[in-house]
Write a structure and sequence with these properties.
- The structure holds 2 protein chains of 2 kinds.
- The longest helix of chain A has 15 residues.
- Chain A has 2 domains: about 270 residues, no CATH class; about 60 residues, no CATH class.
- Chain A is globular and about 70 Å long.
- Chain A contains 10 helices and 20 strands.
- Chain A has a 10-stranded mixed β-sheet, with helices on one face. In chain A, strands 3, 4, 6, 7, 9, 11, 13, 15, 17 and 19 form a 10-stranded mixed β-sheet that branches.
- By secondary structure, chain A is α/β, with parallel strands linked by helices.
- By secondary structure, chain B is an alpha/beta fold.
- Chain B has a domain of about 170 residues: P-loop containing nucleotide triphosphate hydrolases (Rossmann fold).
- Chain B is about 35% helix and about 30% strand.
- Chain B has 8 helices and 12 strands.
- In chain B, strand 4 and strand 5 form a beta hairpin.
- The chains are: A alpha/beta, B alpha/beta.
- Chains A and B meet through helix 8 and helix 9 of A and helix 2, strand 7 and helix 3 of B.
- Chain B: It holds the Pfam family ABC_tran.
C-alpha cells in the first residue's frame, strides 16, 4: 500500500475516533474527496517541477503515534528562546504536551486546535474562520484539512497584544520508525491587535518524519503580525508548510522563513490582501549543504488599491544541495497604486549545488510599481581578496562574506534574542568562527 | 625588506608588468607615480598576492622569502598591508569586529594568543584619536554607506591597528579633501618607524607634499621609466607625464 492508499484507508477510522457530529465533518469529507481525486502532487505539475515527493510516498509512515511520549525540559531547552519569556504550545509526536507548554485564556486565547474544534464556545469563530483562508484545491492542504485534529489555536481580540511572543514547537521523538504529522494552526488577530509567533519543527532522532502543516492567519484592520519560521531540522525530516494569510485594511504581516536544515522542505506561503493600505513582508534566508532541498513558493495576491508587498529571499547553496524560489505576484485590475517588490539572490558555493529561481508576475492594473530581480552568483572575488589581504584566511573570509550576504535580511526581525540566535546559527552553518561575539 | 626582480605579470594573458625592479629598505618611503593604465595598481595587487594576476617572470622577495606561493593572508601575516583604492563594503560586520578578526587571525598565524579585549579597546581608542575618527564610526558596518573620504580614513585606521612592516597605499589620496588628506598623511607619518617602510602609489604630487618620499619612481607601460628623489615628483607635476613617455620611446 502506498501512502495515498494508506491515508484514504485510515480516514474513516480517524473520523470515527474524533467526532462525527463535529461541524467540521463536512469540511473534512470534502477535503478527503479532493485528495482522493488528485493524490500527491507530481513533477509533471509546473508548481512541483523541481520537488519530488516520490520517495516519501514509498515510506511506511505511522499516521497516528501509538503512545504518548514524554520529554524532559532540560533535553529540549535549547530549542526554545530563553532570555524572553514566551507562551509555548508544544507537541510531541503530534500530541499536545501540557508539561512543556504554557497557554493562556487571560484576555487572549492561546491554546489548542483540538479544544477549539470541540468546545461550543469556539464554534462561532470556527464557523467564520476555519478553512476560509486555506485552499480547497491544493491537494496537500486538503489532506491536512481532512485530518485536522491538533495544532495551535490563537485568538487575539481587538486592541489586545499578548504580553509575550508565542512559540509553537513540534518535536518528534523517533519512537515510531517513520512518522507523518499534520498539524493545523488557526490564528486570528482582530482589529488593532498584535502578535508575534515563532514556529519550529524538530526531530530528536534520525528516524524519518514527514510534516504536512497548514496554518491560517487572519489579520483584521490595523493588526500587526510577525511570524518566524525556524527550519533547522535534522537530515531525516521533511516538511511541507502551507501557510495562508488573509489581511484586511492597514494591517501589517511579516513572515520570516529561516531554512537551514531538513531533507526536503517545501514552503507554500500565500498572502491575500483583502483591503487597502496593507503591508505584507516575506523574507527568507536559506543556507543548505549535503543533499538538502528547499522549495519556496510564494504568492502575493493584491486585490485592493494602495497596498505594498516586500519580498527578499537570500540563498546560499553548498555541496549537492538544491533550491527553488518561485515568487508569484498577482495584481488585480482594482489594485491600483500597488507597490510590489521582489528580490531573490543566491550564492552557489559548490559546483554541484543548483538553484532554480522564477518570478511570476500577473498584473492587470496599469498604475502600479512592481520590481523584481533574481541573481545566481558566486562570491565576489574583489571582496574575498580584500579580506584575505587583511590577514583573514580564505575560508573564514568566504564565510564572513556569506554571513554579510545573508545578514541584511535579519534587519526586519523585531525580536532581538531571535535575531541574535539566527545570526549565530548562520555563522555556525557557514562553519566560521567569526572571531567576535555577535 | 622588499626586493622585486625583473617582475613580469599578466591578467587573462594581458601583459601588464613588463620587468619591474625595485628595492625597498626599512625606514624608506617610495612613491610610485605614473599615468592611468601604467600598471601602478597591478603592482600593488601583485605584491599583496591577488590571485587573478600571474607572475610570468621574475620574483618578489620579502624579508628574504619568495612570495610567489604565498596566499594573500600569509603575506598579510608577514607584515604586508595594502590600502585599497576601492575598499569593499561588508554589511553586518562592524569596523571594530572586522579589525579584531583581522588582528587575531594575524596573531594566531604568528603563534600568539588573541589580544585581550581591554588591550584591543585601548589600542582602538588611541589609533582612532590619531586619525581623528569618531568612536561612533567604529560601530558602523564596514565601509557600508561610507563616503569616499571615510573609506580611505578607515583603511589607514586598519593599517594603524595592524602595524605592518610594509604598507602600500594605493591611490589613498583620491576622494579626499584637503583636510582629510592632511589627517591621513599625518597619521601615516606618525606611524613611521626605522623598521617599517611605505610605498605610496599616486597619480598626483599632492599627497607627497605631506608624505615626503625618499625615492620617486615613474611607471610607464609596465616598467619603471625613471627613478629619482622627491624633486622628480615636482618635475612631473610641472611637465606632466608626456615627457616620460617620449623618453621611454627614445
Amino acid at each position: 500500500m502506498n501512502l495515498k492508499e494508506k491515508l484514504i484507508a485510515s480516514f474513516i477510522a480517524f473520523e470515527n475516533q474524533v467526532d462525527l457530529d463535529n461541524p467540521v465533518h463536512e469540511i473534512r469529507s470534502e477535503a478527503i474527496r479532493n485528495f482522493e481525486q488528485k493524490g500527491f502532487p507530481h513533477r509533471k505539475m509546473e508548481a512541483w517541477k523541481y520537488t519530488s515527493l516520490d520517495r516519501l510516498q514509498k515510506v511506511d509512515f505511522s499516521l497516528f503515534p501509538s503512545k504518548d511520549n514524554d520529554l524532559e525540559y532540560r533535553d529540549v531547552k535549547k530549542y526554545f528562546l530563553h532570555e524572553v519569556d514566551t507562551y509555548k504550545i508544544v507537541f510531541i509526536d503530534g500530541i499536545y504536551s501540557s508539561y512543556l507548554s504554557e497557554t493562556t485564556h487571560d484576555g487572549v486565547d492561546i491554546c489548542l486546535m483540538s479544544s477549539a474544534l470541540s468546545k461550543p464556545i469556539y464554534k462561532p469563530i470556527i464557523d467564520v474562520y476555519f478553512n476560509k483562508a486555506a485552499s480547497r484545491e491544493e491537494t496537500l492542504t486538503s489532506l491536512n484539512t481532512a485530518f485536522t485534529r491538533e495544532g495551535a489555536y490563537i485568538y487575539i481580540p481587538k486592541h489586545k497584544a499578548p504580553r509575550k511572543p508565542i512559540e509553537i514547537v513540534h518535536f518528534s521523538t523517533g519512537n515510531e520508525a517513520a512518522l507523518m504529522l499534520q498539524p493545523r494552526n488557526l490564528i486570528i488577530v482582530e482589529e488593532n491587535a498584535e502578535l508575534q509567533v515563532i514556529e519550529r519543527h524538530q526531530s530528536l532522532t534520525g528516524n524519518e518524519t514527514l510534516t504536512n502543516s497548514v496554518t491560517e492567519v487572519f489579520a483584521a484592520k490595523n493588526a500587526i503580525v510577525d511570524y518566524y519560521k525556524v527550519q533547522n531540522d535534522r537530515e531525516s525530516a521533511s516538511l511541507i508548510d502551507n501557510t495562508y494569510i488573509r489581511q484586511k485594511d492597514n494591517s501589517q504581516v511579516s513572515v520570516h522563513t529561516f531554512s537551514f536544515g531538513g531533507k526536503l522542505t517545501r514552503n507554500n506561503l500565500n498572502f491575500y490582501q483583502d483591503g487597502e493600505h496593507i503591508q505584507s513582508t516575506l523574507k527568507g534566508v536559506t543556507i543548505l549543504g549535503e543533499k538538502q532541498h528547499v522549495d519556496h513558493h510564494t504568492l502575493v495576491h493584491h486585490q485592493q488599491p494602495h497596498c505594498e508587498s516586500h519580498q527578499d529571499y537570500k540563498g546560499i547553496y553548498g555541496e549537492r544541495s538544491t533550491g527553488v524560489f518561485n515568487g508569484k505576484i498577482i495584481v488585480d485590475r482594482l489594485a491600483q497604486k500597488t507597490n510590489a517588490f521582489q528580490q531573490n539572490n543566491n550564492l552557489l558555493i559548490s559546483d554541484k549545488a543548483s538553484v532554480n529561481t522564477k518570478p511570476q508576475l500577473e498584473i492587470f492594473a496599469d498604475d502600479v510599481r512592481c520590481s523584481h530581480g533574481c541573481t545566481i552568483g558566486q562570491l565576489d572575488q574583489d571582496a574575498l581578496f580584500y579580506l584575505q589581504a587583511r590577514g583573514i584566511p580564505k575560508k573564514e573570509a568566504a564565510a564572513l562574506l556569506m554571513y554579510a550576504f545573508a545578514n541584511n535580511v535579519l534587519e526586519s526581525v523585531r525580536l532581538p534574542e531571535l535575531k541574535l540566535r539566527i545570526n549565530k546559527l548562520i555563522a555556525q552553518k557557514l562553519g566560521v568562527r567569526l572571531g567576535f561575539e555577535l | 625588506m622588499l626586493k622585486i626582480k625583473n617582475l613580469h605579470a599578466s591578467v587573462e594573458d594581458k601583459k601588464i608588468l613588463k620587468g619591474i625592479n625595485l628595492e625597498v629598505n626599512p625606514g624608506e618611503i617610495h612613491a610610485i607615480m605614473g599615468p592611468n593604465g601604467s600598471g601602478k595598481s597591478t603592482l600593488a595587487s601583485v605584491i599583496a598576492g591577488r590571485e587573478d594576476f600571474q607572475i610570468t617572470r621574475g620574483k618578489i622577495e620579502f624579508d628574504g622569502e619568495d612570495l610567489d606561493d604565498m596566499a594573500p593572508e600569509e603575506r598579510a601575516h608577514k607584515g604586508i598591508f595594502l590600502s585599497f583604492q576601492y575598499p569593499v563594503e561588508i554589511p553586518g560586520v562592524t569596523v571594530t569586529n572586522f579589525i579584531r578578526t583581522a588582528i587575531n587571525e594575524t596573531r594566531k598565524a604568528r603563534g600568539l594568543e588573541e589580544m585581550p579585549a581591554n588591550q584591543m579597546l585601548k589600542m582602538i581608542r588611541e589609533k582612532a584619536e590619531l586619525l581623528d575618527i569618531d568612536r561612533k564610526f567604529l560601530s558602523r558596518s564596514l565601509n557600508e554607506g561610507f563616503s569616499g573620504g571615510e573609506k580611505k580614513r578607515n583603511e589607514i585606521f586598519q593599517m594603524a591597528m595592524l602595524e605592518p612592516k610594509l604598507a602600500i597605499l594605493d591611490e589613498t589620496d583620491s576622494g579626499l579633501d584637503i583636510d582629510a588628506l592632511r589627517i591621513v598623511a599625518n597619521g601615516v607619518n606618525k606611524l613611521r618607524t626605522p623598521e617599517n617602510a611605505v610605498i605610496v602609489i599616486t597619480h598626483y604630487q599632492r599627497l607627497l607634499e605631506y608624505i615626503v618620499p625618499d625615492f620617486v619612481h615613474v611607471l610607464h607601460n609596465g616598467k619603471i621609466a625613471k627613478s629619482g628623489t622627491k624633486e622628480l615628483a615636482l618635475e612631473l607635476e610641472e611637465k606632466g607625464y608626456d615627457w616620460i613617455k617620449q623618453e621611454a620611446v627614445l
